[in-house]
Design brief:
heterodimer, A: 203 residues, alpha/beta, Aconitase, domain 4, four-stranded antiparallel sheet, four-stranded parallel sheet, 8 strands, 15% strand, globular, B: 474 residues, Aconitase, domain 3, Aconitase, Domain 2, five-stranded parallel sheet, 16 helices, disordered C terminus
């Protein structure tokens, strides 16, 4: 059985700083845009309400600032992607062009959803994130590189250490982040487990 | 060796350790709804896969359905497309679907338990973060995204890391006017919205022991708001009594054998936990959120914090939330004017919730400037409430009595806040824009507190309104 997915060991591109803790998935993609049977087009609505509010206030959202157009690495603080389990959130980010997220921490469901899309999420200390955010804001044209083998992010001369859950890293490096194939590989084992469960067999 | 329930369920459902180091975990019950499943079914179709265990998969419709005019086709063409897609997918893949024509339709986290599908010792997955609700029965239940919905449909398994377990004991007993919702809001307030990341929360202690299943579901439902993907209560006689006689629960002699297995899955008395927290239940008061995440809350007799009251790290978030809400730090939360009162959602739309709210509103009228909405969690809840006359209690108080669905919890249907409206809500999230207006404001609280706010037209302490002894049994 084929196990889907490209091997992903490094992501390079311009950074996009998204400051703030606890940025929830309702903000990343408001629920009204989930009224669709497709993921296509979600990128047009990423952070839509926040962007509109900030545009009206005259302080454009990072996703609207010219220097971050074409960015590939999203930088955030703690608990990024909390709240709803909607995979539409990483789908919208990825379709917009984000190829990796680096933050102090992620919500678990967001992390799992992102991994399943081949969108690496790596964590770093608050100090390292502060450094990267500062670099992104002062030198937005300087590309950053997330290296999943070395577990580093390089921004010009600055190199910070990052971490990933071992399984996430392994899935990305080996190209097994689309897990269905892997889960179907030894299906007799699945049937055997089911056959041992009292609620499956009728107690 | 002694084990927690989480460990026992993991051991019973682990298929193998994958090359990534994750567990391949068998999923005992997969619940499906219209929002997070269409792309998953489409991927199955593209890859030529079947649903491996259709008999362990059940679908209903809840997020997008109108609660007023449910005639097909829906006025919202996008909602209609999603409804039709689920009907087509359920038929093609052999998955039972309880749609609007079925008396079993309702919010997925309400109907699973009331049909007896949700049972102790199971692994339960659903493309919805409030799947933790089912943990009230001693199941390990968690939300997943659409790619993982595809994984479960195609293989009945997930690739997942095992969680640590934090035991949270709530001791003593709750005082009058304090409810399950206050318990979980207080837990989130103390441990934070990310305090539970990496953990399953095991709730216990005298307060949880004394709760009904409806109340336990309210607590487990909001585990995810505290960062914990899983929350559970060990199964006990209350659990077994609830399940006996339900359509999908074992019957007759089988029920006795099931009970023995269910009881065996509870955490051992000497199980070791990765962390422990103790909370004095007697000291709790009604809790109301003032900000834009469920951890930004105060007790109803407290003041909204000012940026200077919190740790330096939290100041930007407090400043931003106060600005969005239009509140002054230092002002009392009680007396905050509301425009809308919403009683519903997978957190608080069960019969017990409706009874508690109805006791508060009984024979009174809601404030003339308040729009009140009561949305039962399922058709079965609606029927039971109507049998007791609760619909009349709400209607004569000035509330609207609607059809079952998620409604204004996340406003994917026509039920939405408008502009800067403030909503006293029994739901689970006060995120910016959550209730359908990008500038709308949500105050989370118990259903009884929503009822009290509706009567007063402003945030009010239900303990001062309620006649002694009539509410807050815990």
């Amino acid at each position: 059985m084929a196990t889907g997915g490209q091997r992903i060991s490094r992501v390079a591109g311009a950074p996009l700083p998204m400051r703030g803790n606890d940025i929830d998935t309702d903000r990343i993609i408001p629920a009204r845009f989930l009224r669709s049977i497709r993921f296509e087009g979600l990128e047009a609505h990423v952070f839509e309400d926040d962007r509109k509010a900030l545009a009206e206030a005259g302080t454009p959202h990072p996703f609207d600032q010219p220097q971050y157009q074409g960015a590939a690495i999203l930088l955030a603080n703690a608990n990024f992607g909390c709240g709803s389990s909607r995979e539409h959130a990483p789908q919208a980010l990825q379709r917009w062009g984000i190829q990796a997220c680096v933050a102090e921490s992620f919500s678990e469901i967001f992390l799992g959803n992102s991994t399943a899309l081949g969108l690496p999420c790596a964590t770093a200390t608050p100090e390292a994130i502060a450094q990267l955010l500062h670099a992104a804001e002062t030198e937005p044209a300087t590309a950053m590189t997330l290296d999943l083998e070395a577990l580093t992010v390089r921004a010009g001369d600055c190199v910070v250490e990052v971490a990933t859950a071992p399984a996430v890293r392994e899935a990305l490096l080996s190209g097994t982040w689309d897990a269905t194939g892997l889960l179907l590989d030894e299906f007799d084992d699945v049937r055997a487990v089911a056959a041992r469960l009292p609620y499956v067999t009728g107690f | 060796m002694s084990r927690t329930l989480l460990q026992k369920v993991w051991d019973a459902h682990g298929v193998r350790t994958l090359s990534t180091g994750q567990t391949q975990l068998f999923i005992g019950l997969h619940l499906v709804h219209e929002v997070t499943s269409p792309q998953a079914f489409a991927m199955l179709r593209d890859r030529g896969w079947q649903v491996q265990f259709p008999e362990r998969t059940f679908a209903t419709v809840d997020h997008i359905i109108p609660t007023l005019d449910q005639a097909r086709p829906f006025a919202d063409t996008l909602a209609e497309e999603m409804m039709s897609a689920l009907e087509r997918n359920a038929k093609e893949f052999g998955v039972p679907l309880w749609d609007l024509s079925s008396p079993r339709q309702g919010i997925v986290h309400v109907i699973g338990p009331e049909l007896g599908l949700t049972q102790p010792g199971l692994t339960i997955a659903c493309g919805d973060s409030h799947t933790s609700t089912h943990g009230a029965f001693g199941a390990v239940a968690f939300g997943i995204g659409t790619s993982q919905v595809r994984d479960v449909l195609a293989s009945q398994c997930l690739a997942i890391d095992r969680l640590k377990v934090r035991r949270i004991d709530v001791s003593g007993s709750l005082t009058r006017g304090v409810y399950a919702k206050d318990v979980i809001l207080e837990i989130i307030r103390r441990l934070g919205v990310k305090g539970g990341v990496g953990f399953a929360y095991e709730y216990g202690g005298a307060v949880l022991d004394g709760m009904t299943m409806d109340e336990r579901m309210t607590v487990c439902n909001m585990s995810i708001e505290g960062g914990a993907r899983v929350g559970y209560v060990n199964p006990d006689q209350t659990t077994f009594d609830y399940l006996e006689g339900r359509p999908f629960a074992p019957a007759g002699e089988t029920f006795g054998r099931a009970k023995t297995w269910w009881a065996s899955m509870a955490s051992d008395a000497d199980a070791e936990y990765d962390d422990r927290v103790e909370i004095d239940g007697a000291a709790l008061a009604p809790v109301v959120t003032w900000g834009t995440n469920p951890g930004q809350s105060v007790q109803v007799d407290e003041r909204i914090p000012a940026p200077g009251d919190v740790e330096t790290n939290d100041r930007p978030a407090v400043t931003e939330a106060l600005e969005f809400m239009g509140f002054e730090g230092g002002a009392p939360i009680a007396g905050t004017k509301i425009d809308v009162a919403f009683i519903g959602s997978c957190t608080n739309s069960r019969l017990t919730d409706l009874r508690e709210a109805a006791q508060v509103v009984a024979a009174q009228r809601i404030s003339p400037h308040v729009t009140g909405l009561v949305v039962p969690g399922s058709k079965a809840v609606a029927a039971a409430a109507e049998q007791e006359g609760l619909d009349e209690v709400f209607r004569s108080a000035g509330f609207e009595w609607r059809g079952a669905g998620c409604s204004m919890c996340l406003a994917m249907n026509p039920d939405k806040l408008e502009g800067r409206q403030v909503c006293a809500s029994s739901s689970n999230r006060n995120f910016k824009g959550r209730q359908g207006s990008p500038t709308g404001r949500t105050l989370l609280m118990s259903p009884a507190m929503v009822a009290a706010a509706a009567l007063a037209g402003e945030v009010a302490d239900v303990r001062e309104l309620a006649p002694a002894g009539s509410v807050g049994v815990g």
